Amino acid sequence: MSEKKFLFITKLTPASKRSETRAGLLRLMEQSLHAQSYPHWKALWLGEEESTRGKIQSVDVSKEGSLREIYLRNDLKQLIDWADYIVKLDDDDIILSHTLELAATLDFDCYCDRYHSFYDLSTGITTQQARPWIAATCIHKKEHAVTLNRYGGASWNQRMQKPDWHPEAGKAENFIHSLFYGEHGNDWIEYYQSKKIVYARPQTPIYVRILSPTSISAGAKKFPVHSLLDVDLDAYRSYIHRFGSWNSYPIDNWSAYPPLLRSIWQQFSNGALHPQPKISALLKLKEKIQYWQFRVFGK
């Protein structure tokens, strides 16, 4: 039986908007790719240059409309054809080293985390929280990833009609119109509800999402963010309160990354760690019970 092949697709933050902190996180993301214990993977980076470095192919999508055009290229069609599974990965997140090796042993249409994992750069805390949707970083079986999304190239008014999935939707003519580019909180949930979803165990999640005050939605007062002076810390504290009780749980193959992340934060903040979020004891207990119920009983 042939080995299963995985393709990571990452949209890079433009260099003009990439602070040194974001650049450091990108380096760690690449490091996590090369740390995979399973060798049959490639990566497609959507950025501002054309190059190939080992298993990573970079393409230039800096011009308006170029993302649609690049997926018409024969080399990218061949790259997608090569893969059995496709993974979306942000340029500031970390894919854990066990992920592909575990996924290669499983039978699934979508492999994802029920317990989403987060690391807060400002406090150095790692946590997990049960969420009812499929995270943007998950593993799609290719036949589903390339399926025509229910909206395809529809206009905004057409999207508001909320069309149902058509059972004979077939493959998208352009990958930009595929399920892969659908909305993970709605399109993916509805599509996969009739398919085989396999959830990763909490102690071996697919990836860890890195939270930092380097985006407008997370407290940045300007973009890119170069220092704490560019951050609204009150807004950032409110932002990280969305991520549950901040209980700490064991995560396999994660211990190498917190020291590297602390170094990135130290360079950004001159070593200032911020207080842990104040969470009620009742919420912390409630989430702990939910966590162990899922870990023991799978629900």
Topology:
Layout: E1 6-11, H1 20-34, E2 41-47, E3 51-53, E4 56-60, H2 66-70, H3 74-82, E5 85-88, E6 94-95, H4 99-103, E7 110-113, E8 115-120, E9 125-130, E10 139-141, H5 142-145, H6 156-159, H7 187-192, E11 197-200, E12 207-211, H8 233-240, H9 257-269, H10 281-297
Parallel strand pairs: 1-2, 1-5, 2-4, 7-11, 8-12
Antiparallel strand pairs: 3-4, 5-10, 6-12, 7-10, 8-9
**Average pLDDT over all residues:** 88
Q: How many domains comprise the coordinates?
A: 1
- Helix segment tally: 10
Radius of gyration: 20 Å
Helix and strand content put the structural class at alpha/beta
Helical amount? 25-40%
CATH fold call:
Spore Coat Polysaccharide Biosynthesis Protein SpsA, Chain A
> What summary fits the major beta sheet?
8 strands, mixed
User: Class, according to the CATH hierarchy?
Assistant: Alpha Beta
Shape: globular
Order of helices and strands: EHEEEHHEEHEEEEHHHEEHHH
Query: What's the N-to-C terminus distance?
Result: 33 Å
CATH architecture: Alpha-Beta Complex
Proportion of residues in β-strands: 15-25%
Q: Number of DSSP strands? A: 12
Give a written overview of the molecule.
With 299 residues, this protein is of the alpha/beta class. The protein has one domain (6-297): Alpha-Beta Complex (Spore Coat Polysaccharide Biosynthesis Protein SpsA, Chain A). Helix content is 29%, strand content 18%. The strands form 2 sheets. The chain has an 8-stranded mixed sheet. A 4-stranded mixed sheet has the order 6-12-8-9. A hairpin with a 4-residue loop joins strand 8 (115-120) and strand 9. The model has no long low-confidence stretch (mean pLDDT 88).
